[in-house]
Amino acid sequence: MRIGDREGDATARVVEADTPEDALARRLVLAKYCAGEVLRDTDGLAGWGATALPVAFDLGPWVLPQV
Question: Domain segments of the chain: what residues?
Answer without folding.
Answer: 2-63
